[in-house]
Task: structure prediction
Amino acid sequence: MGEEQESVRQRIDELREQIRRYDHHYYVLDDPLVPDAEYDRQLAELVALEARYPELITADSPTQRVAGAPASGFVEVEHVVPMRSLGNAFSEAEVADFDRRARERLGVASITYVAEPKLDGLAISLLYEDGVLVRAATRGDGERGEAVTHNVRTLRTVPLRLAGTPPARLEVRGEVVMGHAGFEALNARLRAQGGKTFANPRNAAAGSLRQLDPAVAAQRPLEFFGYGVGLVEGGVLPPSQSETLAWLSELGLRVNPLWRQVEGVDGCLAYQHEIGERRDALPYEIDGVVYKVDRRDWQETLGYVARAPRWAIAHKFPAREELTRLLDVEFQVGRTGALTPVARLEPVAVSGVTVSNATLHNMDEVRRKDVRIGDSVVVRRAGDVIPEVVGVVIERRPADAREITLPDHCPVCGSSVEQVEGEAVARCSGGLYCPAQRKEAIRHFASRRALDIEGLGERLIDQLVARGWVHDVADLYRLDAVALGALERMGERSAQNLVAALEASKQTTLARFLFALGIREVGEATARALANHFGSLDALIEASGDLERLQQVDDVGPVVAAHLHAFFAEPHNRDVIARLRTAGVVWLEGPPAPRETLPLTGQTWVLTGTLESMSRDQAKARLEALGAKVAGSVSKKTTCVVAGRDAGSKLDKAQTLGVEVIDEAELITRMQALE
Ligand code: 9MJ
Result:
């Protein structure tokens, strides 16, 4: 026993030491050392050991306080009512246990809960006196946090003065988050400035609130959502969580609209499934849902255990980040020859899916993150995006870790690899000689938004290129069902279907055709603008020698103009186009469509707020291609306002003037119907 206890003591010391370091990096430096899942495992191990050997618990163990220590540089403030954290449930059984215990304590058969998304940001307490914001503080250790008032004041979603009839003093609790779009834009900006980027939106939100300069914080796209109340003085706290949320809305605070009243554990779990389905589509990160006993008197009866309420629990989603080992790095060659370093990983489950490959983006990123082969790396998988390596646990680097080097020659065709000064991306110089580039070009040509050739998948393209049957996209139209039927995994029926799909793809539009050619930097919106402007391919080709003329097209700047010029100057490309036309690929051509005939001609649109699925410039280009004028301000003449996230004064004005307002989803539906 003595010996066993000694080794347990050592392990406990080790875990405490680690966790303290992790806490410091996470809470004070906003720069976590390990993913949350790894942290949770170590903390759980410590909790379990301390539960078995309670005599080894010390007052300074990280288990003995709510996580979070105030960072230096800010004034410490005391919360009038402590800010509790939440207990976690990682499975449905744990939720059922929570519900059963609560029912038993209350002596009731069923409980009505309020279910809310669990926003993954930073908990904040806002103190209002006579309706005026006087202080904003982080949670800190739950008793005392840091005053970040000057920074929180810059958030448009935090009212400086409450609406309605607020009580004399009110502490509002909620979460400050940074949306995905804002996070990506911020990291891109920091990267461009050569600065350090943030590992995830939550760290970015925390780091931004900790800025000493409010002018910097004001540039950061932060948003606040209220979900609770601490102190209420000179007023009455509503008798339930649902009424509290409604009250917060009336006071002018933003409350996440996805909250709902649910019945019992079944209602909770149904809600969790539904929100889980929507998780990837939300513009901000959530890491679970929260269930709260709705009735306030029942909450009071249940009370608190340690520092978490017995009346609420967080039901966590599987983590999006995990730790694994980087086994090797290979370079993939894309359509434009870009070499992408791809990490080969020891397989690891990330949010329910086994990941064994992840992108490292480009060599600049590899250097910035200082990733080496053999390292323990943090892999992140969010929604539909390709899994990526977001960081390294440097302290776990083995002695024999190897640096990642960019190859001199293309791993596919052996041509030299070139990197333009100042560009992050290195490219194979082989052009269409390189089978990898050829395959990607064919795949792009056949893709849904290009010529939409159904059934022409990656494996098939691999075979067609490997057999030398298809060198370029024009060769596709020489394939016949007999030859195709001889290919692997290709029945007679699929061969006939593919030939039919190829035949059908010949009827297209000029915009699709231009997009399908895969000219660098010519996406769908630009292709559409070019098609509208020039009206015919020959007119575009003729103009392509003149960079000035090209730049008269909306959406075309010097870079795109140069790519267009280079593309059409290349005899091989002209030859492919000629052969495609000979094969029967056709589209309706005519003089440039006069503006009057376009579906949105005569209309004036205004875009405001942040769009999630496209940039504002892209939306503008698409609307203009449909004939609309896109203006910067709202007036009586405005036809329609598109309100993205965080839409501000333009939205207010539209509402005042009675101008039609639609959201992004509706914009996309309408544009697609007209395009
Ligand atoms: C988050 N993070 O979204 C609570 N939370 O309630 C929600 N956090 C909470 N509620 C009591 N929706 C303590 C924390």
About this structure: Residues 84, 86, 116, 118-119, 175, 227-228, 290, 312 surround 9MJ (CB under 6 Å).
